[in-house]
Amino acid sequence: MIKRFISFSLILVIIFSILVGCSIGDTAVEDTLEENEVEEVNTAEEVDETIEVVDMAGRTITLPKPANRVFATRPTGTILLYTLNPDKMIGWNYDLRDGEKQFIPEKYHNLPNLGGSGKNAVNIEELLKLDPDVLIIMEEVIEKSLSDAEELEQKTGKPTIILDSDLLKLDEAYEILGKIIGEEERAKELADYCRKAIEEVQNLAKDISDDERIGVYYAQGPDGLETEPSGSWHAAIIDLVGGRNVAEVEAKADTGKSLVSIEQLLNWNPDLIISWDDERGGYYSRIFEDSTWQSIKAVENEEVYEIPNRPFNWFDRPPSVNRILGLRWLGNLIYPEVFNYDVSEVVTEFYSKFYHYELSDDELVDLLKNSTRH
Fold it and tell me: pTM higher than 0.85 for the full model?
């Protein structure tokens, strides 16, 4: 009987061992399956991070993941990047002036000047020390843009995206840049704002008859005798809001600033003048003191206005998203009955949405004091 008991016990032990072994085996299999599933998920996530975009010159660029360190080679692109996400910027194209710093949060003031403004070339050596993930060229897209991008990629070994600075294509530029830096939702918000603002201006301006069009002169330079004709991208805002650009001069490609004589200006006799501000080196204040300007209709009627310039010029230079605000400002200035909205509200909203800055009442008054009718 004892033998039977021992045999029965051994059988139970064997059965228990088999069951435990199976359980352990099943667990091991389950663990292996789970590990494989995790690996597959991780692999999928890595693949999902890869970004492929077609830039505005038709070039296809692939990035392993959204870019966190970005540099734009010109102020046009730098402003676009700043409005989208300034934390992704690694530098400016020039040293910020006091008027710009006033409306830009302090933590961005000391980003390094890496060049790219005016005749100052990008400092490739300093740029590479900061190891950008991607470079942005934003300009009028021409054949030279392609060779410039290729040259920059050869010098830096960094992928380079071309964006078009055309005012009517800002929405597309935002959408491409948003995908590159992983900010697609905010990019859509800003792109929609730009698209709606342009459509609004075009719809309102189309009903202005030729007889109603106001003659506008754009005064640039230290004596106010540099300007831009209709059709120049520098003066695109005048055309879009339905103004009649009085300047009958030949456009200077890229640089602009066609020279005019005081005799020409007197002959054109504009109804309204917009001018560079004094801080920028313009002639605004001295227009009222210069005896040769006093018989011009705009001066006689005190229809001379300063173009707001802080943090970025509202009219043309640099030709970036700052011009969207300029569209609404100038439209309301020239045709207040047509573009009938509260400019103060428009400016406050724009600075908050695009410049990450909440204007005080005093700052708003200071910005507009020489730029609107009172």
Answer: yes
